Amino acid sequence: MAKRQPQQAMVAAPDPMLPHPYRVRRVQRETYDTFTIELDQANGVSGLPFAPGQFNMIYLFGVGEVPISISGDPAQSKALVHTIRAVGTVTKPIVRLKRGDVLGVRGPLGSSWPVEEAKGSDVVIVAGGIGLAPLRPALYYLLSHRASYGRVALLYGARTPEDLLYTHELEEWRSRFDMEVGVTVDAASGNWRGNVGVVTTLIPWARFEPSDTVAMVCGPEVMMRFTVQALQERGVTAENTFISMERNMKCAVGFCGHCQFGPTFICKDGPVFRCDRMELFLWKREI
Amino acid sequence: MKDLSSRAGLHVVEQEHLHHLFEGLKGRGYSLVGPTLREGAITYAEVGSTADLPAGWTNEQDGGTYRLTRRKDAALFGYTVGPQSWKKFLFPPVTRLWQARRNGSGFQVLDEGQESPKYAFIGARSCDLHAIAVQDKVFLQGNYVDPVYRARRKGVFVVAVNCGQAGGTCFCVSMNTGPKATFGFDLALTEVLEGQRHYFVAEVGTELGAEVLQEVPHREATAAERAAAESTVARAAAQMGRTLDTTDIKELLYHNYEHPRWDDVAGRCLTCANCTMVCPTCFCTTVEDSTDLKGEHAERWRKLDSCFTMDFSYIHGGSIRASARSRYRQWMTHKLATWIDQFGTSGCVGCGRCITWCPVGIDITAEVRAIRESKHA
Hints:
The complex is a heterodimer of chains A (287) and B (377). Chain A is an alpha/beta fold and 287 residues long. Chain A has two domains: 20-109, Beta Barrel (Elongation Factor Tu (Ef-tu), domain 3), CATH 2.40.30.10; 122-244, Rossmann fold (3-Layer(aba) Sandwich). In chain A, 13% of the residues lie in helices and 29% in strands. Chain A is built from four helices and 15 strands. Chain A has helices spanning 91-94, 132-144, 167-174, 221-233, and strands at 20-29, 34-41, 55-60, 64-69, 80-85, 102-109, 122-128, 152-158, 180-185, 195-196, 213-218, 241-244, 260-261, 264-265, 272-274. In chain A, strands 10-9-8-7-11-12-15 form a seven-stranded mixed β-sheet, with helices on both faces. In chain A, helix 3 (167-174) links the parallel strand 8 and strand 9. Chain A is globular, with a radius of gyration of 20 Å. Chain B has 377 residues and is α+β, with helices and mostly antiparallel strands. Chain B is 30% helix and 25% strand. Chain B has helices at residues 19-27, 87-90, 126-140, 147-153, 172-175, 207-213, 223-238, 249-254, 261-266, 274-278, 324-343, 353-357, 364-373, and strands at 10-14, 31-38, 41-46, 57-62, 65-70, 94-103, 106-111, 119-124, 157-162, 187-194, 197-204, 219-220, 285-291, 297-304, 314-315, 318-319. In chain B, strand 10 and strand 11 form a beta hairpin.
């Protein structure tokens, strides 16, 4: 009987905890604390195929790793785009990187917005603050398949005018005849002449047929809670309402247990969730 | 692990011949780990021979209590599970996942590959075999496979032991996880002491187990010996220290997130995380990225973590589960309810360790009973 070898050779299956190197192509300032980074694969192969709503774990050498939603166009695979708010030990140095610097990427991870399933229906996208970043890929997809959808509305709220993201693109989208764009801020200084009020104030006025509308919502949890409620008051069902949740993540592949939300792992069962499936847990405190 | 071997029937190994099993396994290159007596408890460590086993010892366990006491006989496995489980070997508490070195403006990851010893587990109880199967589901059967667990899990040789007595906090019968081992072993032993006789009734679980048994003097068990083994296990089943009614437990907990009992537990729970450390299925970890002072060499380490820690759920400047109430609720509802939706089985195997090793003796079976008896929904 032959002795078994004590060491097991690594089988071909990739190690999900190994980051792949990507080079910074461009860092663009969106607001005082938010930047959009474009990355190329370091080995020369371009981009990373992904579905709208998915995220990557972005690693800064020796510092740490953070989950960031992909905010670029899924049809354009040349660069990997992330919009990052600089808030802590990892994100603050990341937004100061220069062209040619290298980041580690693990992904794409997680579930995605129902852009296929929404075909044939009206779509309303409601974003709060940086929540517009994970929704932008979905909007790009809708606009490049515009004929497949009914009415399309983007409702976007930020805390102040200085916090509005993608202001150039907002102007472009607003100038189209085939979508509605509503923008509001929670509070403004004297120069702002636009809407003032939380984003839910835009919902009663947006044009969509509630009985045949798919809603995609992303932003702070309290904003999502009131938005889902306002949408339901207009008649959009929970089966047609999708949100993107966040929790503490360490491994992002379903092993570390940190991102659990009720029975789901946000890293693999989410971050995009259909509201009716989460009814027992949604909006409950400390779950 | 291969399916049940074609060798049916039970065999008897006399106690004085058991050491051949150890020698046979060592000869095949295995590192043997099993129960040993150290620091006032029976814990799993390297064993070289039957002399390393805690012969003649037993334990008394209850909520927040673990005491070693002497037996009147010289049974080698006459105790129940201690504070450790086999996850200590399959899922090391601290592991380096990879190292990387700076390389111009970039970096290069040096993939470690996973080397691990070839283990033979001596004396695995049925509850712990179920726990290993539960962790197999978590680490090997999802969308991603954990390479550290896989490398260690492959090729483990399991010598199971069927319990002859139950501990004060045991409830494997309620969880359908024992006391008799029914799968997941190469060999299973039931220790019998009758008068002057001291022998083991051995069941073969795999072809490899059958091969190893060939190196140990053994013969077919008589009907009387088989009956003695069965009554030993039946005695353990009748002595369970606790019971847990698992009827509709998922719905029970899903509909009682605001039950006042959680406040009651919160008044007692210290969030010390002992329960998660001794639990054989708890698997939560944290990932730490670090670098040397020059910033040229980085490492990623994985360490065992617990949902009871203050910053386990930290995000956006605060913890989602800040209160002790929410953290105990998370642990218990994960273990007994959401685990079922996640992995298709309960996360609890009824080993009772969380009850024994809780410094204030919180009893998961009593908590379920309290909620069930006065449920809201």
